[in-house]
Amino acid sequence: MAELGRAALVVSLGLSLYALIAGAAAARLGRRRLAISAQNALVAAFVSTLVASGVLVSALLRNDFSFTYVARTTSEALPTAYTISAFWGGQEGSLLLWLLVLTGFAAASVGLNRRWARDLIVWVVPVFAAVSVFFAFVLVAVASPFTTQAAPADGAGMTPSLQNPYMLAHPVLLYLGYVGLTVPFAFAMGALLSGQTDERWLVATRRWTLVAWAALGIGQLVGSKWAYEEVGWGGYFAWDPVENAALMPWLVATAFLHSVMIQEKRGMLRVWNVLLVLLAFSLALFGTFLTRSGILNSIHSFTQSSIGPWFLGFIGVVVTVSLALVFWRLPRLRSPTKLESPISREAAFLYNNLLLLALCLTIFWGVVYPLLSEAVRGEAVVLGREYYDFFLRIFGLPLLLLMGIGPLVAWRKASLRSLLTTFRWPTGVAVATGAILLVLGAGTSVPGLIAYTFSSFVAATIALEFARGTRARKALGATSWPGAFSSLIARNRRRYGGYVVHAAIVLLAIGVAGSSAFDTVAEAKLERGESMKVGGYTLVYRSLDERLAANATEIRARLAVSRGDRDLGTLDAGKNAYTIEAQVSNEVGIRSDPLTGEDLFVIAEQIDPDGTVYFRVFVKPLVNLIWIAGLVFLLGSLVTLWPDAREQRRLARRAREIGIPATH
Amino acid sequence: MARKANPARLVIALAVAAVLAVFLLYTSIAGGGNPSLAPSELAGRSGEVQLAGLVVGPVTGDAHAGGLRFALRDIGKSSQASIPVLYAGSVPDLFKVGRQIVVDGRLRGGTFVAEPGSMITKCPSKYAPKQTGDSA
C-alpha cells in the first residue's frame, strides 16, 4: 500500500512538471493543443494526489502502524473521527492536504475560466504547476507520509488537546484559506506573464479570494473557540506565532478585497493590487512554514527542521520572481486615473489598506523579531503581548472607525459639508453611546470605551444604509417591507453582504473589548463546602468525582453557582488524565448567559489528593458575541459569494471597457 | 512623463512616516521585550529575562502555596548544568519532567524567581504528540 502512495506522489510530481514545462512552452509559442494538454495534466495531478490521499486515509482507518506517520499520530483507542483528522494532524499529512487542495483548486479555477479568458489561462497553468511541483517535490523527497517501519503494537496517540471537534475543522479551514490564496496569485502572475493586465484576472478570482478569505477568517475563530474551551487558560487569542501566521494573510487579503473595488470601479491601484496578492500568497506560504517547520518550538531547532530551508528557499524564489515580473510589466500597469481628493471613497479605502498593512507588518515584525535579534545581537528577544496589544489599538481602532466612514463617502470627491450631513445621525448615536457607557463606569478602560463608541458609530451607519435602501426599494414598488429588504440585498449582494461582514466585525470588536478590557478574575483554594465570590456570582464547591472514559480518567469538581438569590445550577470543572498519551489536560467549566453573552469560566487548576481544589474563575462580559460574530461573518460571506449573473455580466463589460488591449 | 502632484503618493509617504513615528515611540517607551536565554547563559544576569529550558526533577512544593520548585537545563545540549527555579501560579497541563518550558523572571541569589503565572510549556510540537529523543 505504501508503495502505491509513494508512486502516486511521484506521478503527481511528474504531471506537475509536465504541466509547468509544456504549459510554459505552449503559452510562449502559442500552441493551443499543447496548452490543453498541460491543463489536463493539472487535472490528472489532482487525481493522482487524490489516490495518494486515499492510501493515507485507508492506512489511518486500518490502524496500519507499519506507516510511520500513522503510528506517530494515532492509536488503537482513538475515536474514528480523530483518526481521520490525523490526516492533517502531522507535518507530512498536512503537506499532502496542501497539494490535494492546490491541484483541486487549480483544476477547478482553470476549468471554469478557460473559455472567456483563454489568453490569460495559458499562462496561469504553468504558475499553478510551479507551485504544485514544489509541494509534490517536498512530499516525494523530503517529508514523505509513506515511510514505513516494523509495525509497533500501538501508535503514540494524539495530543489530548487536539481531540476536540473544533480541531477537526480548524486546520482544514486554514488550509483552504492558505491554498485558496494561490488562485489569485496564479491569475495575477498569469496576467503579468501574458501581458493581459486588464481587470479580468480580478473578476475571475474574486470568488476564489472571497472563499479563501472567509475560510481563513472562520478557521481562526474556530481555532479561538478551541483555545478558549480546550486549552483553558481563560483567553482565546495569545498572539502566538502560529495564530499570527494565520492572521497576517487574512489581513492582507482583507486589504486586497477592498482595493480590488477601487481597481474595478476606477482602474486605479493596479500595481498595488498585484503586490497585495503576492504578499498574501507569500504570507500563506510563510504561515505553513511557521506551523510546520518547527521553528517555533525553539528558535534554536530551526536548522534541524527538514522542510524549513526548502520552504524559505521557495518563498524567496516566489518573491524574487514575482517582483521581477511586476517591474517588467510596470508600463502596462499604469493607472489611467488618479486619486482626485483625499476625501473620497478611493481615499478611504486607501487609508483602510494602509492601516491593515501596517497592522500586518507590525505583527510580522513581532514574529520575526526573536530571529533577527538573535542574528544581530546574539540573543533572542521576544516581544510580548503588550507589543501586539499596543499596535492593535493604534491601527485597529482607526480601522474600526473607517469601516463606518468608507462605504458612505462619495467616489472621486466628497465635500466636508456632505460628510457632516451623511454622518449626522451615526455621530449622534456614537456620542450618546459613549456618554452613557462613561456614566455606567466603562471609563476604566479607555481603549475599551473608544472601541464601543466607534462600534456604535459603525453599527448606526450600517443600520442607516439598510433602512435607506429598503425604503427606496419600497418606494420603487416593492409590495412589502420584507420583500423590499430581500430585493435590496439580492440586487447588490456585494454591497449588502459587505455590510453584514462589517456588522460581524463590529460584534467581534464589542466581544473582544468586553472580554479583555472589562473582565474580572478571582482565585481561591477551596475545600469541599467552601465558597468564593466573583463578579456577582457565588460558587460553592460541592463534590469531586472520578469516572473512567474510553481513553481517559476524568476528574470533575462540581460547583453550585448562584447570582444574588437566584440559583443557576451546577458547573463541572476538572482534568482528564489520558492513559496512552500519558498526559493530563484541563477541562474547564463554562456557563454562558444567553441574554447578556457573559461567560462564567472556571478552571480547576490544581486538584490535591485530599480533595481541595485551587480554582481560577473568570467573568467575561460579552465574550459570546465573538462566536456570534463568526456566524454573522459566514452569513455575510455567503451573501457576497452567492452567484449573481447580472453582476458578472456588468463586470465583464466593464473589464472590456477599461481593458487596454483587445482580448483576441 | 511629467509628475503632477499626486495625492496617493503623498498619502502613502505620510502613512509610512506615521507608522515609523509610532514605532519609534513604542520602542522608546516599552524598550521592546525581554531577552530569551538558556539556563547556561544566565550566570551574572540580574535583569528580567525569559528563560527557556528542559524541566529537571524532582518537582516539589505547591504552585499555589509557597511555590513550586524544580530545575531547568539547556535544551538539546549535552551540558547537564541546571538552574533551580521557584515558580508560583498556573501550571500548564503539559508541565512535567523532561518537557520544554518558558518562564519570565530574574535571578535572585542563585535561584531563578519566576513571575507568577508566566509559565508556558512548549509541547514538542503542537501537532506531533510524542518525540522520542527530545532530550538528545
Largest sheet of chain A: 5 strands, antiparallel
Give the H and E element order of chain B. Answer: HEEEEEEE
Helical segment count of chain A? 21
The average pLDDT score of chain A comes to 88
CATH-derived architecture of the domain at 36-122 in chain B: Beta Barrel
In the CATH hierarchy, the architecture of the largest domain in chain A is Up-down Bundle
Q: Low-confidence spans of chain A: pLDDT under 50, at least 5 residues?
A: 297-304, 659-664
What fraction strand of chain B?
25-35%
- Poorly predicted ranges of chain B (pLDDT <50, ≥5 residues)? 124-136
Largest interface: A-B, 62 and 42 residues
| Classification by helices and strands of chain B | alpha+beta
As a percent range, the share of strand residues of chain A is 5-15%
Q: Count every beta strand of chain A, where a strand is a DSSP E run of 2 or more residues.
A: 10
Structure description:
The complex is a heterodimer of chains A (664) and B (136). Chain A folds into 3 domains: 1-160, no CATH class; 164-371, Four Helix Bundle (Hemerythrin (Met), subunit A), CATH 1.20.120; 523-620, no CATH class. Chain A has helices at residues 2-29, 32-61, 68-73, 80-85, 91-113, 118-142, 165-180, 182-194, 200-231, 241-266, 270-293, 308-328, 345-377, 385-405, 416-422, 424-440, 446-475, 481-491, 493-517, 624-641, 645-658, and strands at residues 380-382, 520-526, 531-534, 537-548, 552-563, 566-578, 583-587, 589-592, 599-607, 613-620. Chain A is built from 21 helices and 10 strands. In chain A, 64% of the residues lie in helices and 12% in strands. Chain B has 136 residues and is of the alpha+beta class. Chain B has one helix at residues 7-30; strands spanning 34-37, 49-62, 67-73, 82-87, 100-108, 111-114, 120-122. Chain B has a 5-stranded mixed β-barrel with strand order 2-3-4-6-5. In chain B, strand 3 (67-73) and strand 4 form a beta hairpin. Chain B is elongated. Chains A and B meet through helix 13, strand 1, helix 14, strand 7 and strand 9 of A and helix 1, strand 1 and strand 2 of B.
